[in-house]
Structures are given as structure tokens and as C-alpha cells.
């Protein structure tokens, strides 16, 4: 089901909680919603569609990847300044991002994965991780 994008900053500033297997239905809603906004959106956190859960979907190598309970294990050490927009907010804002991140996460089968992401995909994941912390760029 395509969900409405949450724009309420009070809601968006709340911290998300870890996902359990009972939350897996959110993955389908994230996928359907991001596909409905594919012209404007390359990543989406669960709180953007009304769930305070640590689940996201990102466009990675031209396919959608679900990351459940992701955690950055290591950063490249190098940062760069960029401007980002968000469906939940108007306009763009400046932020700092790491060029490369190593992430531990669960896939849709709740199997642990570890992957290094670079460039734009790393930037998207960092943006969505900020959503989990209630940080609005």
C-alpha cells in the first residue's frame, strides 16, 4: 500500500525503535511508497510513512535494498559537505557525509549482512539513519 509522506516535524523528531520480525510488513509499504515517488526519492525511512522503526529502503545499483536495524560499523574518515532534500521537508539543507561506510543490517529474511557502501548510496543511508535519530537535515 502506498502510504502518505509524513511532514509533521514533531513526529519526525522522535527516535525510532528496533524492528522485530512482526514489523516485516513495513518493508512492502516502504517499497510500494518509494516506487510511487521514484522520480523524486532514492531513499526512505520508516518514519517517513508513519512507523517509528529502524527500517529503510535505498536505491542501490539500480535496485531497491531493504535495510533493517542498520548500524554503521566503520566510516572512511573522509567527509564532504553536500546539500540534501527530503520528501518530508521543503527545500534543501547543508550537511556533512562520509564517503564510505561499512554497515551491518538485517535483510528481509532477518539474516545479518555486512556491506560497504560508497558514494551516493552511502550518502542516502546516512540520511535515512539521521531519520532514525529524529535528526532533520
UniProtKB/TrEMBL annotation:
EC number: 3.5.1.88
InterPro entries in the cross-refs: Peptide_deformylase, Peptide_deformylase_sf
Cofactor binding summary note: Binds 1 Fe(2+) ion.
Keyword set, alphabetical order: Hydrolase, Iron, Metal-binding, Protein biosynthesis
Annotated Fe cation binding sites: 86, 127, 131
CDD domains: Pep_deformylase
Gene3D superfamilies reported for this sequence: Peptide deformylase
Catalytic activity annotation: N-terminal N-formyl-L-methionyl-[peptide] + H2O = N-terminal L-methionyl-[peptide] + formate
Pfam families: Pep_deformylase
Active site location: 128
Record-level Gene Ontology MF annotations: peptide deformylase activity
Entry cofactors: Fe(2+)
Main function: Removes the formyl group from the N-terminal Met of newly synthesized proteins. Requires at least a dipeptide for an efficient rate of reaction. N-terminal L-methionine is a prerequisite for activity but the enzyme has broad specificity at other positions.
PANTHER family per record: PEPTIDE DEFORMYLASE (PTHR10458:SF22)
Family: Belongs to the polypeptide deformylase family.
Official protein name in the record: Peptide deformylase
Gene of this entry: def
Amino acid at each position: 500500500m502506498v502510504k502518505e509522506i509524513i511532514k509533521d516535524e514533531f513526529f519526525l523528531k522522535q527516535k525510532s525503535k528496533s524492528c522485530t520480525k512482526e514489523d516485516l510488513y513495513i518493508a512492502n509499504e516502504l517499497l510500494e511508497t518509494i516506487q510511487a515517488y521514484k522520480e523524486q526519492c532514492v531513499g526512505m525511512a520508516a518514519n517517513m510513512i508513519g512507523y517509528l522503526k529502524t527500517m529503510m529502503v535505498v536505491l542501490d545499483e539500480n535496485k531497491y535494498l531493504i535495510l533493517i536495524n542498520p548500524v554503521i560499523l566503520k566510516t572512511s574518515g573522509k567527509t564532504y559537505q553536500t546539500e540534501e532534500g527530503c520528501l518530508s521537508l521543503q527545500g534543501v539543507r547543508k550537511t556533512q557525509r562520509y564517503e564510505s561506510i561499512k554497515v551491518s543490517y538485517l535483510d528481509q529474511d532477518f539474516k545479518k549482512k555486512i556491506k560497504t557502501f560508497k558514494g551516493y548510496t552511502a550518502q542516502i543511508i546516512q540520511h535515512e539513519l539521521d531519520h532514525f535519530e529524529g535528526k532533520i537535515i
